[in-house]
Amino acid sequence: MQAFIRETIKACQEVVMMLETNTDDEAYKPQEIGAGGDRSVGLDLMAEQIFVDRLSRFGQINSEESGIIGEGDMQIVLDPIDGSDNMLTHFPYFGASIAYMKEGKCVLGIVCNFANGDIFIKDDKQFLQGKLHSAHFRPVVKHHTSKIGLFEKAALYPEITTKLIENHLKYRAPGAVALSLAYAHYTNYMIFLGKMRTYDLEAGLYMCEGLHMYKDDTHIIISKDKDVFEKIKTIILNQSGE
Question: In this predicted structure, what is the pLDDT of residue 241?
């Protein structure tokens, strides 16, 4: 596990350097539709290759861009750049999601925010957060002063956002699902509605163990506060007719 963590951190560092120094216009041009259903740009594929070079010896990679790469008993579910539109807009909320899977279950999750260097690492023993270029990590603990929640793709659900506002449940819609899941211990709540993709979810959901959570094929509702969780769950499921 430690070797995998070290190589993943090195890969994240290399991707950040690549993003900061790349001036090739070709890197920003649209490419083919990726395995996850979104159109990749050159930077997505360049980031993917960095992770493949570092991690392929640990198992088969299932990447949002290219799908299945290589072979192995273990599988690595990879989103090389979560929040690509944010990256292209220079909005500082984008990163990578890496889930190390054994028999279909995540046993090690790593999520890194490339914009500010926050990196989250969780295994079956601990959940830590640090900075990408620092050796110091601290345990992730729930923040009890949280004022906002995160509602990914909120603009698609105006009836729900109206109800949240009526109930004084402030939110932001930052645009990177894996990162928002990783930050869920710090925020008041996290909501994601719509199509569920393994690349976005595996590592982040693993990091949300111990929080109040509702998940089905089209809903993810998470909060550290039971009352907030139940209130939001009622709002959303009522709007969905469930």
Answer: 65
